[in-house]
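[INFO] parsing input record for DUF2953 domain-containing protein
[DEBUG] input buffer:
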Amino acid sequence: MGLLWVGFVLLVVILAIIIVLLSFIRGEFYFSRVKDNDTLSLEMRALFGLIRYRYVIPIIQFKGFTKGILIKSEIVSKTYAKLKDESKDHITKDKVIQFYKETKDVLVHTLNLYDWTKQTLAKVECTELKWITRVGVGDAPETAITTGAIWGIKSSLLGFTMRYVQVKATPRVDVIPQFNEKHFSTEVRVAARIRVWHMVFAGVRLMVRASKVKGGIRTWIQIALKARSRLKTAS
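[DEBUG] output buffer:
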């Protein structure tokens, strides 16, 4: 009887692990700009919604070349009804330079990081892609030219997206000219998902690639610790 219970528990554990590995990590990116009002949010969900994280940036202000860009961020609870944390941070020139140096350091200390990125993105499924822009410059011919230019930019970005990820939904992309008025507004919503198994496998492959370069693992650990320290400081 005892062996039967042990076998049953092991079977349940194995099935649970398989279900978790086959489940999806889902992400949703949203950005809108109407006149001078910007809103940016990022939501991540895993384990069938049991794990949920929503990061909102309701304020993005340019404060000059010395202070850079002011970002006010909020972390909202699972029910979206309660504010859990709020912080302000400035994106300055020094921080951008530091980010560039860290990115370069990672590229140097990881074997074929570009190939790893392409292989990982190939497992990502885009389930929603919406990008609607309304534009007007006050003159009908110039508005038509501007509309065409924006269409060109969107087409290039859409082609890049469809090249590297699996697009499962029909993209809703449009540029609506606002003739004879000065106007600009845009709304972007992107939803994507990837199976937990692919993320675990990608993480293992990344560490294997890093281990093949001297100091690779140490570099990744240092950058992770720095990122964690910045998050604590910002909050």
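[INFO] Confidence is low (pLDDT under 50) at residues 79-83.
[INFO] shutting down worker
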